[in-house]
Amino acid sequence: MKSFTDRVAAITGAGSGMGRSLAIQLARECCHLALADRNATSLAETARLAQAEAPQIVGAPLRVTTRVLDVADRAAMFDWAAETAAQHDRVNLVFNNAGVALSSTIEGMDYADLEWIVGINFWGVVHGTKAFLPYLKASGAGHIVNTSSVFGLFAQPGMSGYNATKYAVRGFTEALRQELDLMKCGVSATCVHPGGIHTGIAQSSRIASNMVGFMIESEQQGKDDFEKFFITTPDEAARVILDGVRKNRRRVLIGRDARAADWLARTLPAAYQALVVMQTRRMHRIAHKRARAAEAAGRRA
Ligand SMILES: NC(=O)c1ccc[n+]([C@@H]2O[C@H](COP(=O)([O-])OP(=O)(O)OC[C@H]3O[C@@H](n4cnc5c(N)ncnc54)[C@H](O)[C@@H]3O)[C@@H](O)[C@H]2O)c1
C-alpha cells in the first residue's frame, strides 16, 4: 500500500505507546481511524490528538471513531470490526498492536497470568486478523500488521509467557502472509518485531513475586531495569512500521537492538542462550550490589 490517504485503519492498543503514534502519523496522512483500547481515557486522548494533527481539508474531515474493548474478547472484536466497516464504509488496514508483558519463572507461574497474556497477545491478534479479514478483502486493498517483538526472535529467562505469545504471533503472521500471497486477494500482512521502545509497557507489566531474588531485587527495580533497554521512541517505531507497510515488507525489525538480536539468534541459535544466561547473571549481581548499597545508605541516614 503506497499511500494511506483516504484509507481506513483500525488500531488496537491505540491509547498509548506505538498505537497512539501510529494513529497520529496516519491522521497526518489523512487516513481515517477506528481506534480501540481497554482504557477509555487514554483512548479519547489519542482520538483528540489524531484529530488535532489531521490536515484541515475543507469538505473531507478526518473520521475518527473509538471503541473501548478487550482484544481477548472474541465477540467484542467481531462486533467492532462490523461496526467499523459500517461507520467508515470500508476497512483497509488493521494494526493488531495491543499487548502486555509478564515476568515470571515457569516453575512459579500462575496459570491465570499465563492465560491473561496469551488471551491478549496471541488471541487478540488472532481475533483481530479473523474479524477484519473479510472487510479487508472486500476493500480490494488491505493490509494486516501484527505486532510480535524482539522476544519473538530470541528467548529470555523470566519472559516465557511473553516469548510464547510473540513467537506464536510470528508463526501465525508468517503463515498468514503466505496464504494471502497464494490467494492473490489484494490483502497483505507484515509481522513487526520492535526492540526496546520507550512506552508504558514496562510500568504496566505484571511481575510475579517469584522473580524477586531470582533475577531482580524488587518489582520496581525490575520495571526500571526493563526500561533501560528502551532505546527507540514510539514515534520512530511508528514511522518504521508505516514505511514497512508501504514497502509491503514481510517482517519489520525496529531498532539496532532488534537487528542485533535477530542476527545473534540466527548465527548462534543454540549458543546465544548460554550468552543470555551469562549476561542475566551479571545483571542480577549488579542489581543485588546496588540494592545492598542502597540498604546500607538507608541505615546510615
Ligand atoms: N515497548 C517495547 O519495548 C515493545 C517491544 C516489543 C514489542 N512490543 C509490543 O508492542 C505492542 C504495543 O505496546 P507498547 O509498547 O506501545 O505498550 P503500551 O503499554 O504503551 O501500549 C499498549 C496499549 O494496549 C492497551 N491494551 C492492553 N491490554 C489490552 C486489551 N486486553 N485490550 C485492548 N487494549 C489493551 C493498553 O491499554 C495500552 O494503551 C505490544 O504488543 C507490545 O507487546 C513493545
TrEMBL record:
Keyword list, A-Z: Oxidoreductase
Domain Ketoreductase: 7-198
TM ranges: none
A GO molecular function held by the record: oxidoreductase activity
Domain of life: Bacteria
SMART domains: PKS_KR
Signal peptide: none
PANTHER family per record: OXIDOREDUCTASE SADH-RELATED (PTHR43391:SF82), RETINOL DEHYDROGENASE-RELATED (PTHR43391)
Protein family membership: Belongs to the short-chain dehydrogenases/reductases (SDR) family.
Protein name per its UniProtKB record: Short-chain dehydrogenase
Phylogenetic classification of the source organism: Bacteria, Pseudomonadati, Pseudomonadota, Betaproteobacteria, Burkholderiales
